[in-house]
Amino acid sequence: MLPYKNLIIIKDKSQIPVYKQIAVQFIGLIQEGKLPPGALLPSTRSLAFDLQLHRKTITAAYEVLVSEDWIDNLPRKGYIVSKDLPLVRPKTFRQNRSNSFSGKGVPNFQKLNPVLPHHFKENKGQIIIDDGFPDISLLQAGVISKQFQKSLDYFTYRASLRKPVTEHYNLQTSLCNYLKQTRGFDIETENVFVTRGAQMAIYIAASLIIRPGDKVIVSDPSYFIANAVFEKLGAQLIPVPVDEEGMCTDMIEEILKKNDIRMMYVIPHHHHPTTVTMSVERRKHLLHLINQYDIAVIEDDYDYDFQFKYDPYLPLASDDHGGKIIYIGSLTKVLGTPFRLGYMISTTEFLEEANKMRRMIDIRGDVIIEEAAANLINNGDLTRHIQRSNKIYAQRCDFLSKLLFKELNDSITFTKPSGGMAIWVKFNPEYSLEKIVNKAEKSGLLFYGSVYAKGEKPLNAFRFGFASLPEDELSTAVEILKNSIN
Amino acid sequence: MLPYKNLIIIKDKSQIPVYKQIAVQFIGLIQEGKLPPGALLPSTRSLAFDLQLHRKTITAAYEVLVSEDWIDNLPRKGYIVSKDLPLVRPKTFRQNRSNSFSGKGVPNFQKLNPVLPHHFKENKGQIIIDDGFPDISLLQAGVISKQFQKSLDYFTYRASLRKPVTEHYNLQTSLCNYLKQTRGFDIETENVFVTRGAQMAIYIAASLIIRPGDKVIVSDPSYFIANAVFEKLGAQLIPVPVDEEGMCTDMIEEILKKNDIRMMYVIPHHHHPTTVTMSVERRKHLLHLINQYDIAVIEDDYDYDFQFKYDPYLPLASDDHGGKIIYIGSLTKVLGTPFRLGYMISTTEFLEEANKMRRMIDIRGDVIIEEAAANLINNGDLTRHIQRSNKIYAQRCDFLSKLLFKELNDSITFTKPSGGMAIWVKFNPEYSLEKIVNKAEKSGLLFYGSVYAKGEKPLNAFRFGFASLPEDELSTAVEILKNSIN
């Protein structure tokens, strides 16, 4: 309901009778679009009360509007703005548009580089190749809704409401134990910081560390949204190539000798996008450099939990780094999009600032989601889910690898990963991935955040996320890809 | 489970028998804290498999560890790290701490000003005065959980998963209609941008507009977390006093004449913290200035929905501003902390950049929460909830006003607000609010984000959030306040 009391002003001294004054001002509201077609007008009784007038006066005004086809009087519904106002609509709508949220618009704001490829509306029957999402159909809906019910309990969230923003959540404690067991960290609850997703952790850490003009070492290629964040914060990116052993640490050493480096962003485990895992030698070398040159490091370990053969390396952060490494992980990769949850492990001093930064960005998290996630960790559902998922993802990875080898081996190169949710597929130079993608999309195969075919030196490669696709969809996808080559 | 395959290395040529090599390396893991007291060791079978050894060898190794009190063998549970390792624990823990997340820590990161007052742990029986939170006990838990069940439905969120980040949510459409009806905006779904909360909307809008050194007009006093954001982005704040008619627009005009102003942050409706609502004359003047000087404006309208008497003014943004105003609102203020949801209304051009910025911060929102909120809007539960809340908040506001007048009238000044969730209580200069707060907290009355008693020119005032407190708690609160004065 609009505040008619302030919108409809009655001039007592006017020549125009009151009911006409009202009618005219309603026409104004309709023409301005403040009362769009189909909008319900207030009842004669309530408007009479608001305007302190006799109800007969309002009825008279409405009758004028009805007779002039501005409004209709629907039985058992009341007066609504007429759905077709042919004469006025086009004019007034356009005119009014320019009055509100178009026109010249917000003066002189920053344009950012796109951080995701072009958008598209999904139609039925299409297959989307993502860059490595979990298959949330593996997460038994029953299991989750039970946890949601729990955290929805009125007392739980009334309590949560009263809890100050910086109070520890259960999730913080649950994560702490989970990470001790799986990552071999020696940490306290105070070293755990819960974020919306790994992305927010990256953003917060970077904005506390990076100042305009700072030099930041990133891998080449690297996770493009992280790069976008660093650049938005004014960083100068110094790319270091990735080979089959991970980032080239010798080159990093050369760079550190010659430059004043502010921060390093590394993905030693299942590097994004290439899925390469850094070798032991490189890890030792990197740790040595981190300590020798005393630089801040973000270790992005987004899918440590997904191992097909049981042999991950512990994160860099579990080794000796004197608190210089900020370790970032994701629960979204485990539980799926409905849980936008990630975490940052660092010193209490750093997390205190991270806490302030987070409050500027969104005060606090979703109590219900975080409680549900904590319960899933505590009762072991999370671990069971990961084990179940790993079995299935391993099968899908195997299935896709065989398929790619069988169908596309002459046109692509790829290495079957030891875990994770995606295969890094590189097309041979004679094929243009950009063309292939465009052609494939016409046949209903869409790529989401996974294609590296643009930029100065296009990689002609994409991340083939297999985790979220059942085998039949994987087959269709590869078939469409094959047909899109020529 | 730790990746023992890589942690436990067997030297074939070693003099030491294999079972002892294993035992020694487990002791290492325990001393480093990678295996904390109580941690479960892998079963002899699974470890034998991982290390490709005979199971008897593992058993022998475990027997050594048991005999040396490193681990215990619990019936039906297996081998766990002994809970008391008096000789080693203190030393190894401290030593290991300094190896992981303490030590010197992240080099040279930015220290931010605190954006919330000192934290506190809540104990039973305490009363917290917030700066204006809703009482979520008014939101029928049944109503919500029904909506959560709906959005939890597997198909719903599988679909949501497949939906690209920038795809429209139902919530966007629902909000668009809701805002058209309540704010008189002439907008399309494309003009609506959903965020985590009003806070994130403020952060995103500001970071697209403000560049280091830019001059930003804010009210004095103003919402302190918004100020913190602008300063973090490098803005120079230009404060404009607030009187009983809102921000002094004459002073704004003077400032605009003399300075190159980048942005203006205004709260015309229930100003935060003072709860003053800007007069019609000032609104007209302000709109005139905005258009004349062509500056970007953030209109923060966090509690428009809470009106005790039915006579709000429409937002500035509903009037003619050519898209220069970015309108920000909150659903958290309506639905309570569990729903961290806000929105930004602006031109499609601006929201396109906002979308990129948001993806850098946290990619996307919580599907489940957003779906639930959309349903609450569509089926009318939201409006019913607002109407119900307004009745109760009006009573509590009335109750508190009478109480404050009766009990504290000689020591404070305040104006009963026409809506919202808080009363702005100003203590007379002869009383130190800081002292009062400290004394009150000893008696179990805590203040959360509501006290303006610090800084260069302390206001000696606080926001008395009445919405979340039932009458008995309001009485106790005022009683404690009274007793804390002397």
TrEMBL record, chains A, B:
- Record carries keyword Secreted: no
Q: Sorted alphabetically, which InterPro entries does this protein's record hold?
A: Aminotransferase_I/II_large, HTH_trans_reg/aminotransferase, PyrdxlP-dep_Trfase, PyrdxlP-dep_Trfase_major, Tscrpt_reg_HTH_GntR, WH-like_DNA-bd_sf, WH_DNA-bd_sf
Q: Could you say which protein family the record assigns here?
A: In the C-terminal section; belongs to the class-I pyridoxal-phosphate-dependent aminotransferase family.
User: Sorted alphabetically, which CDD domains does this protein's record hold?
Assistant: AAT_like, WHTH_GntR
Q: Which residues cross the membrane?
A: none
Record's superkingdom?
Bacteria
This protein is called: Transcriptional regulator, GntR family
Key words of the record: DNA-binding, Pyridoxal phosphate, Transcription, Transcription regulation
Which Pfam family, an example, fits this chain? Answer: Aminotran_1_2
Q: Which GO terms describe its molecular function?
A: DNA binding; DNA-binding transcription factor activity; pyridoxal phosphate binding
Establish whether keyword DNA-binding is in the entry.
yes
PANTHER family recorded for this chain? HTH-TYPE TRANSCRIPTIONAL REGULATORY PROTEIN GABR
Domain HTH gntR-type per the UniProt entry, residue ranges: 16-84
